[in-house]
Amino acid sequence: MIKNAPFRFADFESIEITYGTPDEMVNTYNSKTRLYQYLTKDDKLVRDTLKMRDDDLLYLHRKAQELGFWNVDNDMTTPRKDASEGRDVPRFILKYTYKEKSKEVTLDADYQGHPKMKEAAKSTIDAVMTMLAEVKAR
């Protein structure tokens, strides 16, 4: 099954995650550039360099595969009536890039769509966030 998977680790290039409220998507990490930028609790913007090991990236690739990340919708945002509605709802954009294709998912924390799809996307995002915390702690 792994050899026939739509995304193979041998073709892996990078993982990018961006998160925050829709108006302030300043929290970012890119495994290729190793740049990590985030807001602290007291609203200070911190820029850092984090290097994920190949094992970390392989784990995240396999986790996405296990959770069914490749099968979720790309747009999992909640429709809003106007710009002020949902301004404080967290939004996550997760992108896995491979040599010939990529998978990018945008997820609002209050998304009301299919629960299994939401859980697959949320769990994959949680795995990336946990890995970032572990790499930062090293």
Order of helices and strands: EEEEHEEEH
Shape: globular
Structural class: alpha+beta
Low-pLDDT stretches: none
Mean pLDDT: 88
* Largest beta sheet: strand ordering: 4-3-2-1-6-7-5
- Quaternary organisation: single chain
Q: What's the number of helices?
A: 2
Describe it.
With 138 residues, the protein is an alpha+beta fold. It is 27% helix and 32% strand. The protein has two helices and seven strands. The protein has helices at residues 54-67, 115-137; strands spanning 12-21, 24-30, 35-39, 45-49, 75-76, 91-98, 102-108. The chain has a seven-stranded mixed β-sheet with strand order 4-3-2-1-6-7-5, with helices on one face. Strand 6 (91-98) and strand 7 form a beta hairpin. Helix 1 (54-67) runs antiparallel to helix 2 (115-137). 20% of the residues are buried. The model has no long low-confidence stretch (mean pLDDT 88).
